[in-house]
Each structure stands twice: as C-alpha cells, then as structure tokens.
Specification:
The complex is a heterotrimer of chains A (308), B (22) and C (216). With 308 residues, chain A is α/β, with parallel strands linked by helices. Helix content of chain A is 40%, strand content 15%. In chain A, strand 2 and strand 3 form a beta hairpin. Chain B has 22 residues and is of the alpha+beta class. Helices cover 18% and strands 23% of the residues of chain B. Classes of the chains: A alpha/beta (308), B alpha+beta (22), C alpha+beta (216).
C-alpha cells in the first residue's frame, strides 16, 4: 500500500484511493465503511471504504476477508494484497486522520469531537465514491454513537442509497470486513513507517499496542516526553493519558486563554476580585496612592525595571 | 518571543521541535 | 535566569578598553517614585541609560537552544543624569547653603549615586539647575528653582517636537498605536502636546516639582 501522500506530511489528514473498477461505474454497488485505530493514543485513525458490484458479493466472500479482527498483521497484509489484485471489481479509498488533526480538532475552541470527525470522514468517503461515478445502492457501516441517529443522518445525506448501520458490521457484512482490512493495513503501515518531523535521532518504535492501558505504551510515552515541547506528533495529545503525563512531568505552560470556557478556579477567583459597582460612586479617600505611570508607557506595556 | 509563559529556565530542544517560518 | 533579552544602542555594547570599564547595571533612587530602579552606566561612565521593560502577560523566550521564563524585553535608552542628581539638590536646597556637589549627592540607601558625578555630562550640566560659586579653586552649588524650571521647560519643548515628528497620538481619543492615519490629525492641539510632554517629563521628577512645572 502506497502511503507516500500521507508520509509527505503526516501532520495533516490525507485521502488515498485505488482506481475505480469499470464494473462499479456501470452496475449497482454495495459499499462498506470501517475504521482502524480509534482507541490508541498513538498514530492516525483511518477510515476506509471498500465497494464492489452487488452482483459480485459472492466473489468477495470467496476472498475470505471476513473476521478481520482475529487476523494478525501479516494475515491482514496478505488479504489486502488479495483485495488489491481483485481490482477488476473491488475498489477502496481511505481517509487517514493524522494524530495531529485528531488532537487539534478535539482541543480547538469550537470543539470538533472524535464522533463528528468520524462521521465526516465516512460521509466524505462515500461522497468521493459517488463523485468518481460509483453506482451506489447499498452502504453498510458499523455504529458510531447511536445507531438509529447515524443511520438517519447517512440516509438523509445520501437519498436513494439504502443505509444499514449495525454494531459489529464487519462480522456481518464481508464488504465492511474488506473495508476494515484496508483501514487496518493503512494504519499499520503509517505507524511502522512513521517519519518523525522532530529530529529525535533513533526513536524506539516498540510502543506495544498503542492503547493507553498497555504498560509498554505507557513506558514509551514516559520516555518520549520532552519537558518543554511535550510529545512528538505521533501522539494524540488530546487523549487524557497524554494530558495526565504532561501535567505531571512537563513544565507548566500558561496561555492567555487558559481560563476561557473552562470555568474553574481562575474564573471564580476573578469574580471574587471584582469591585462592587457602588465603589465607583461617592468620594474616594486620599489613599496616598502611587503616581500612575504616564499613558505613553502603559499604552506600550512599558514599565520601569526595579531589578533583573 | 513566545505567546505563552513557560515556567522553566534552561536547555530546550528548540531546533528539533520548533521550525520558524516567515 | 542568567540572561535577558535587551535592545540597546551600540554605544552600550562597544567593547570596553579595560575590564574595569565595562558597562554596569546599577540601582539608583527613582526621582519620581523614590524607589529603586535599574540604570546602566556605559563603559567608563561616559553615559547614563535608563532601563525599561516591555512586559505583557504570558510571554517567554526561546534563545538559541534554551528557554527563558522571563518574557520581558528590556530597552536601554540614554538618559540625562541631571534628573537623578536633581532630587538631592532639591533636598539640600531647603537649607539654602552652597555646598560641594560630592556632599550633596550622597545616599545611604544607594551609595552608587556618587558614580553619577563621574559622568562628564553631570558636572557640565549642573549650571542648569543650580547657582554656582567658586572659592579657592573649589566649586559650590545651590539649588535654583528658577533655573530648574527653565531647564525643564526646554525639556518639555524638545519633547513636544519629538512627539510631533514621531506622530504620537496625544489627544484624548483612544487610538491603537499601530494605527497610522494618512491625514494629519488636526484635532490634536498644541495644548495637548504640551500637556502630554509635561506628563512624560514628570515621569522623571518629584510630584511637587511636576506641579510647579505645570503652573510654569
């Protein structure tokens, strides 16, 4: 699988796709959607679609792409090669969501959470297939959030397409399983061949499963935490695992908008420091107050230095 | 000049993590 | 921290001829606040500079391969040493006596103040704020309010010129300092400039003198 488009800048998200089989442009097709790498604290999340003519579902089943979750990395690789060779009737496309995109989306001021990100990735891929001329009739997808709401959303978005949202769709529908293999293989490659834009020298890539509760992953996170800069972009710094480690082991960093929208101690302290409106009326006592600096200096944030 | 306050004085791997651009 | 980020004139950092003539930071009595403030004497005490800091919240520096918590940017600018010497003459002037200058410029809390007298400009300029007598080859000085006010007025006039040429907003309206008008703002009157300049000069003198200058 050629991930060079993603590797060129792995801080950004990227779409990769196979060619479109001619049969998919002329016959009614089914399309499966699945994801890989939702839970890990490292690496991208990949959304994948796989599509083929409805009439060729049996051929797909014969490729034995089912039960992808039970497969080893090598077995998935082998099945992907099978799918890739079946390019006369199977097409695929992937949306690789970089860990940086996931983190910044989740942390930006107007929050863009993981479910919304997932929905949009899936919708984007389906639209891509339609735009490429795939004659889409059926879409099968695993649940992301409440199944009925997701099904309604997709059905409204793609009228005329029969949408089926089911938990564990990858074990029910071979086309979803095929999508799952594409997504997982892409994620495996992306992580194994990760190019660190941070010049860290030889970086140990033995991070275990990448899941937050894996001791090997936790050890890797501890070893690769820079006290000032935090983590390399491989890490999803919006994950609570990463944030907790940063809070305990990295140096404190304060931003102008630290209190915005987060309530908490500083906001309530600020409220306590507010003067009563009544204090602005009435005669003020002569407090022997210090002479205020001239506005020339205050407007320019300049002040006298007492000591270095 | 950074738009944040870093509570630290000392070495930092600026060249490795920080890529200035005009 | 052992380093700071500073903008300073070349004259400050010009290589000194001897180690003992390197520029030095000193703490002296601020003529406005009476508290300690930081100043700098250039190599061989040729010139006095004041130290101001650009300071906003939430700043730090990357300097090479280090991070510096202190996010201030220091500005070092030349300053007339007479402003720092004047408070001592004001105080001594209450006695009404002529005194040698090295007996006037004395401060228990800031013994470095005597170094101001080594600045060539200081002794040359004393005549602007004092009356002078010479007896037996020795000079004696006594504070003169009239001379001081005249000297301060010249400072205000120069400041007005500088404000105009730098297009500084001195009017009552609030305007961003980065906002540049294409047309000259005719609403800013001469009085606004003088008021503003008086305020700036008052940053370097005691309150009573500032009030006297305002009347003058």
């Amino acid at each position: 699988m050629d991930l060079s488009a993603f590797e060129a800048d792995n801080s950004r998200s990227c779409r990769l796709a196979s060619g479109i089989p001619e049969a998919c442009r002329t016959e009614a097709c089914c399309l499966g959607i699945d994801e890989a790498g939702r839970g890990p604290v490292l690496g991208p999340m990949v959304y994948g679609i796989c599509f083929c003519p409805v009439s060729m579902k049996q051929r797909l089943q014969d490729l034995k792409v089912a039960d992808s979750k039970t497969l080893s990395e090598e077995e998935r690789e082998r099945l992907f090669r099978k799918l890739d060779k079946a390019k006369d009737f199977v097409g695929w496309a992937l949306q690789v969501l970089s860990p940086n995109t996931i983190s910044t989306s989740m942390l930006q001021r107007v929050k863009y959470n993981l479910n919304a990100l997932s929905h949009d990735a899936a919708i984007g891929l389906v639209q891509y297939a339609l735009d490429c001329g795939v004659q889409l009739k059926e879409v099968y997808v695993d649940t992301v959030g409440p199944a009925d709401k997701y099904q309604d959303k997709l059905s409204q978005r793609f009228p005329g397409v029969e949408v089926t949202v089911r938990p564990k769709a990858d074990s029910l529908f071979p086309i979803v399983s095929a999508a799952s293999i594409c997504a997982k293989v892409a994620r495996d490659h992306a992580v194994k061949d990760w190019q660190f834009v941070e010049e860290l020298g030889e970086t140990e890539m033995q991070y275990g499963s990448g899941y937050p509760n894996d001791p090997k992953t936790k050890a890797w996170l501890s070893q690769h935490l820079d006290p000032v800069f935090g983590y390399p972009q491989l890490v999803r710094f919006s994950w609570s695992t990463a944030r907790t480690l940063l809070q305990s082991k990295a140096v404190p960093v304060h931003w102008d908008d630290d209190d915005d929208g987060e309530g908490g101690e500083k906001a309530s302290a600020a409220k306590q420091n507010c003067s009563s409106v009544l204090s602005y009326y009435g005669r003020k006592k002569n407090e022997g107050a210090k002479r205020l600096p001239h506005r020339y200096f205050t407007e320019r944030a300049l002040e006298t230095v007492g000591d270095l | 000049l950074l738009p944040c306050e870093v509570e630290h004085n000392g070495p930092a791997r600026v060249g490795q993590y920080f890529s200035p651009a005009v | 921290a052992e380093q700071w980020v500073v903008i300073a004139p070349d004259s400050v950092v010009e290589a000194p001829k001897k180690a003992e003539t390197e520029p030095v930071f000193i703490r002296l009595r601020n003529p406005k606040t009476d508290e300690a403030s930081l100043y700098l004497l250039s190599n061989n005490t040729q010139q006095l500079y004041e130290v101001k800091a650009f300071k906003e919240e939430y700043h730090s520096w990357f300097i090479g391969q280090t991070v510096q918590h202190d996010g201030r940017l220091l500005f070092i600018t030349p300053m007339d040493p007479l402003f720092l010497v004047l408070p001592y003459f004001l105080k001594a002037g209450k006695e009404g006596k002529f005194q040698p200058v090295d007996q006037v410029v004395v401060d228990e809390d800031f013994p470095c103040c005597s170094r101001l007298l080594k600045c060539p400009k200081t002794l040359q300029a004393l005549c602007h704020i004092t009356e002078e007598k010479e007896i037996g080859g020795q000079k004696f000085n006594r504070y003169s309010k009239e001379k001081t006010l005249e000297w301060l007025k010249k400072k205000v006039d120069r400041t007005v010129k500088a404000l105009k040429s730098s297009n500084t907003c001195v009017g009552g309206a609030v305007k961003s300092s980065t906002f540049i008008r294409t047309k000259h703002n005719s609403e800013e009157k001469e009085e606004d400039y003088i008021r503003y300049a008086h305020g700036l000069i008052s940053e370097y003198i005691a309150e009573d003198l500032s009030l006297d200058l305002h009347k003058y």
